[in-house]
Every structure is written in structure tokens, then in C-alpha cells.
Amino acid sequence: MRKGKWILPVLLITLTGCSPKLHLAGNTPQLYPIKNLPVDSSMLAFYKPYKAGIDSQMNTVIGLAAVNIERGRPEGLLNNLVADVMYQAGKENHIEFDFAHTNYFSLRNPISAGPIKAFKIYELMPFENYFVTVKLKGADILDLFNYMAAGGGDPISGATFCIKDGKASDIMIQGIPFDISKEYTVLTNDYLANGGDKAVVYTKAIKRIGSTIKVRDALLNYIKQQQAAGKSISPKLDHRIQTIKL
């Protein structure tokens, strides 16, 4: 044991005594470009067929936009299109809900008038968000509409309301005046259902049901269906959300 105690100090003294003295010559960062690397032909051969297949799919024209489709507040053409597609897809898949709602900032890019290529929808919705239904008490539904009103409006379908002084009023769900004593089910996406975009009201769910339906897939399918039917994409503004100036 006594011998072992002396090993480390001796080594440290020896190493310290033999260590060279280093001086900082400069601290200017430099880039070292890598040029003329040989091409890995086996790697190129491996991924090229996949890239060609994906490029072909992404550049396929899947529909036609009759007008520029952009998001807006309190209401926008893109808002209405996406919310209505969610509503329609939900009903077609026999999902039970009262109205559809998604977040304004999930709509990342507009759809320009003219041919719509598939990759544009992926740019519009780059995230893998799924349909979720959330059942809420009437008081929490009111909080949800106030949340939408405070932000200036969100994409909704199956409901209408007015924004007065940053609060929701004149709320109608399925054409019937909102009843705070009732429970309502909202079709939304999993991001919002988890409380994303500060929508914490969704975390108060009485009941929550997930699905395997992606919001983006619903939109892609709708555009393709319209093209197959010889129809262009032409959403309308219908005053489902109105701002009342006091």
C-alpha cells in the first residue's frame, strides 16, 4: 500500500517535467475545403433509383388551383380549405365529432394558382400530424374559442363565431347556438391535442381518440379526387369567423 501511494506523484512530476511548453500562435478560424474526392459509384448506384422514384412522385401534378390559396386572419382561403378537408375526411372515415379545428401556423406555405405538384403539399405540411378527436366540457370549449379569438382566428369547419375585443362571441356549432352545459367533440391534430401552440385547453380532454389518418394525406387525397372529377381547387371565404370592431 505504501509503495502504491508514491507511484502517482512520481509519475505526475515526471510528466510535468517532460511536458513541452505550448504557445498560442493565433485564434483565427480557418476552413479546409474538401475537393476532388473520388465518387463512390456503389453508393450512387444504391440511392439513385430511390431518388428518381421520389422525384417522380413529388413532381407529379395532382390538381389545379383556380386561385392563389393563402392563409389569413380571421379567415383565409387556405384556412378554410384545410379545415373543410379535415371535416370531410373525418366524416368519410366515420369519425364522430362536432367541428374541426387546426392551428394557423401549421399552414407553412400557400398554394399558388395553377398546377399543384405533390411536393407543394409536403412544403405546406412538413410534419407527420394525425387526426385526433378530443371531447371537452362546454366551459373548455368556450376557452378553446377564446384561444382562437385571442390569436386572431384559426382554421375551423363546422362552427362559426365572432371576435369581439379579443374574445369569442356568437358561437354556432353545426348551425346551433353554443350551449355551455353540453360536451362537444373536436376533430384536430395530435400536435394541438398534446397542448401544442399553447392550446393547453386540449389537455383537459374528457376523452381522446387517435387515428392513423394524416392531415397531409387527407389534403393530398382531396386534391387528387378533385382532379379525377375534373374540378379545380377553389375554396371560398364564407365569414365563418368575423372580427367585430367596437
From TrEMBL:
Single Gene Ontology BP annotation: nucleotide catabolic process
EC number(s) given by UniProt: 3.1.3.5
Name of the featured protein: 5'-nucleotidase
Gene Ontology terms for molecular function: 5'-nucleotidase activity
Annotated source species: Arcticibacter svalbardensis MN12-7
5'-Nucleotidase C-terminal domain sequence ranges: 67-199
Key word Transmembrane present: no
SUPFAM superfamilies tied to this protein: 5'-nucleotidase (syn. UDP-sugar hydrolase), C-terminal domain
Pfam families linked to this entry: 5_nucleotid_C
Keyword set, alphabetical order: Hydrolase
Domain of life: Bacteria
PROSITE patterns: PROKAR_LIPOPROTEIN
Record keyword GTP-binding present: no
InterPro entries with a match to the protein in the record: 5'-Nucleotdase_C, 5'-Nucleotdase_C_sf, 5_nucleotidase/apyrase
GO annotations of cellular component type: outer membrane-bounded periplasmic space
